Predict the structure.
Amino acid sequence: MIEITDALAIARDQPETTYRALERLVDRTVGVRLFTLMEIDRDRDVARRSYTNMPDIYPVQGEKPLMRNRWFETVDGRHEIFVANTLEEIAEVFADHELIRSVGCESCLNLPIVIRGRLRGTLNCLHGAGHYTPDRVVAARSLKPAGALAFLMAETIRREGGANG
């Protein structure tokens, strides 16, 4: 968490500096091959990608419609962590499951970031099949404060009219 607070204090290249620090923390905590941050846009009923460690495949600002399925009920409805540890489970809820497989991922953990009772977005962690064990799911809960700080940083920058530099 210290790395996140240090990243927040840096005035330049925000929110990227904070997002990269968050990715390193997530990797150390639960392991990640593909990592993205998705922000929820209620007005347009989409999730918009604000960070990715694979921009050639999953570009920043890419969008996915919010599908009313098991994932939505878990993450948006109950604010619980969603885990799928096989490609078949991923395919049940994500239309881009073949693209996910193409980058060597067959499991996912989506950590909802809830601020003041509202889902602001998700930390999306993807890895090889079966990676997100019960112990890793428990460990992922510790990432919620860092995720909330990252989303709040991005909101602050938008309110202030742009990135710091």
Summary: The CA atoms of residues 46 and 65 lie 4 Å apart. Residues 144-160 form the longest helix (17 residues). DSSP finds seven helices and six strands in the chain. The two ends are 23 Å apart (CA to CA).
